[in-house]
Write a structure and sequence with these properties.
mainly alpha, 2 domains, globular
Length: 454
C-alpha cells in the first residue's frame, strides 16, 4: 500500500505543477506577494514584511535551490497539495487519499491561498490521531496548522470544541488528553505574544463587516457569480451541505463515533455558516474553500474501495484553477514604467498591483489607506476611474496636480486625494461615490491585527 500512496502523491504533484507551469506569471491575485517574500528572504535574509507562517519560509527554502522565485512558489504550492494525500490516507484510507489527489478545491487553494493550503495536511493528521498514537506528531501537527495561517488556528479551536462535545456526549474524556490540549493552547498563546500574523483576540476586529443578518442563498453558491468556478469544484464545494446533514444524523445515532464526528462537524458548520457575507470574496469565501477538508472525511468514512481504475480522476485536479486568468500584469507593468522618478517612499495601489510594484521596483506599496501618523506629502497613490473633467473640477486649486498614467488611472499625492474625498463627501452622485471607494482606491487603514508584533 505504501508504494501506491507514494505514487498517488507524486501523481497529484505532477498534475498540478504541470498546470501551474503553463503560465510564466505567478498564480493567483496575490501571487507576487509570495514571490516578493521569498526573493527578499533569499537576497537579504529577511522577509519583506513580517510573517510567522512556516509556509512562507518553506517557499523561501525552495527558492534557495530553484533560481526562479516564481517557479519555486509554484513547486512549493503543489508540494503542499501533494502532502495532503498521505495525510488523507492516514485519516480515511484510499478513498480519501484519492479525493485529496483529485480535489479541484485543493488546486484552487494552491493557486490562490498557499498559506491556507498549508493548514490542510496538518489538520488531517490531527483528525487521524488516536489515543494509542505518539503525542509528538499531534503537537507538531497542531502547531503547523495553527502557524500556517490564522484560519488554521480558528478551525483548530472549532475542531477541539467539537471533539470535546462529542466526548462529553459519549464517554468520559481522559484527563491526559485535556491536559495535552491545554498545554498546546498555552504554548500557542505564548507564541502569539511574540510572532506576527498568528491568531490573536485582536483579530476579532477583522470579522467586523464579515457577517450579514439578511441571509439569502447559502454559501458557497453565491460565490460562483463572483469567481469563475468549474463544475467539478462546484460539486465538491456544494457537497459540504449533504456531508453536514449526514454527519449530524450519524452523530445522533452513532455514540461510538461522536468524538471524531464532533471534530469534523463543528469546523464544517463554521465553514458553511449561513451568515457569512456572500457579496465579497473574503473570510466566508476562504472558509467555504476549506469545507471539503471536513466534508469528505464524513462522506467517505465507510467507503473501502481501493480500485486503481479510479486513479484517472486525479485529472480533475486540473479543473480547480486556470493559470491564464490573472490580473492585467502587462498593463500594470506599463503603468509602473510611467510613474515619475524618483519613486515615492510609499505608493498606495490596488491589491495585486502593490505586490507587482514591490517586485518590479523594490519599493514599498500598500493596498491600504496610510495610517494617520504618516506624512501625506511624501505618499502618492494610483487613483482610478475618475475622468479628466472630474479631476479638473475637484483639484483645480490644488498642487501638485495629478498626472495621468493611463486611460483610467492617475498619479496623485495623498493629501490631494484626501481633499478630493472631502470635497465629494456630500456629492449626491452615487456613481461617483462608488468609483471613489472601489477596491482599486483603498480607503481602509490596515487593521491593528496586521501590525501586531511587527
Amino acid at each position: 500500500m505504501a508504494w501506491r500512496i507514494l505514487t498517488l502523491t507524486v501523481l497529484a504533484f505532477v498534475v498540478r505543477l504541470q498546470l501551474f507551469l503553463s503560465s510564466a506569471e505567478p498564480t493567483g491575485w496575490d501571487g507576487y506577494s509570495y514571490v516578493v517574500q521569498v526573493e527578499r528572504f533569499v537576497s537579504e535574509g529577511r522577509l519583506h514584511w513580517p510573517d510567522a507562517s512556516w509556509v512562507t519560509y518553506f517557499l523561501a527554502a525552495l527558492h534557495v535551490v530553484i533560481p526562479s522565485a516564481i517557479v519555486a512558489v509554484k513547486v512549493g504550492a503543489c508540494l503542499l497539495a501533494a502532502l495532503v494525500v498521505p495525510a488523507a490516507w492516514r485519516l480515511g484510507g484510499w478513498p480519501l487519499a484519492l479525493w485529496a489527489a483529485a480535489s479541484p478545491t485543493l488546486t484552487h487553494l494552491a493557486g490562490d491561498f498557499a498559506k491556507n493550503l498549508g493548514v490542510v495536511a496538518p489538520l488531517l493528521v490531527v483528525l487521524a490521531w488516536k489515543r494509542t498514537d505518539a503525542r509528538a506528531p499531534l503537537i507538531v501537527s497542531v502547531l503547523l496548522a495553527a502557524i500556517a495561517h490564522r484560519l488554521g488556528a480558528a478551525l483548530l479551536v472549532a475542531l477541539a470544541l467539537g471533539a470535546l462535545l462529542g466526548a462529553l456526549l459519549s464517554t468520559s474524556t481522559p484527563r491526559r488528553v485535556l491536559g495535552l490540549g491545554l498545554l498546546t493552547a498555552l504554548g500557542f498563546a505564548a507564541l502569539t505574544a511574540w510572532l506576527p500574523n498568528l491568531l490573536h483576540p485582536a483579530d476579532l476586529e477583522r470579522l467586523s463587516g464579515q457577517l450579514t443578518f439578511s441571509p439569502g442563498v447559502p454559501t458557497p453558491w453565491p460565490y460562483f457569480s463572483l469567481r469563475a468556478t468549474s463544475w467539478p469544484e462546484r460539486v465538491e464545494l456544494l457537497l459540504a451541505w449533504p456531508a453536514l446533514l449526514f454527519g449530524i444524523w450519524r452523530f445522533i445515532t452513532q455514540r461510538a463515533e461522536r468524538v471524531r464526528l464532533g471534530a469534523l462537524l463543528l469546523p464544517l458548520a463554521v465553514c458553511v455558516f449561513p451568515l457569512w457575507r456572500t457579496d465579497q470574496l473574503d473570510v466566508g469565501y476562504r472558509l467555504a474553500l476549506m469545507a471539503p477538508v471536513f466534508a469528505f472525511p464524513v462522506l467517505l468514512a465507510h467507503v473501502t474501495s481501493r480500485t486503481w481504475l479510479l486513479v484517472p480522476l486525479v485529472l480533475l485536479a486540473r479543473t480547480g484553477f486556470d493559470p491564464a486568468v490573472t490580473p492585467p500584469w502587462k498593463s500594470w507593468r506599463a503603468i509602473i514604467a510611467r510613474i515619475p522618478r524618483p519613486l515615492p517612499p510609499l505608493l498606495i495601489a490596488p491589491q495585486g498591483f502593490n505586490f507587482l510594484y514591490d517586485h518590479e521596483t523594490q519599493h514599498e506599496s500598500l493596498a491600504w489607506s496610510p495610517e494617520p501618523s504618516l506624512d501625506r506629502t511624501t505618499i502618492y497613490r494610483l487613483a482610478w476611474d475618475l475622468t479628466d473633467g472630474e479631476w479638473a473640477e475637484f483639484t483645480a486649486d490644488l498642487t501638485p496636480q495629478p498626472e495621468r498614467l493611463g486611460p483610467d488611472v492617475v498619479y496623485v499625492r495623498e493629501d490631494v486625494w484626501e481633499r478630493v474625498l472631502e470635497r465629494t463627501r456630500d456629492d449626491p452622485d452615487d456613481g461617483l461615490q462608488a468609483r471613489l471607494h472601489t477596491w482599486k482606491n483603498p480607503s481602509r487603514v490596515r487593521p491593528r491585527s496586521l501590525l501586531r508584533n511587527h
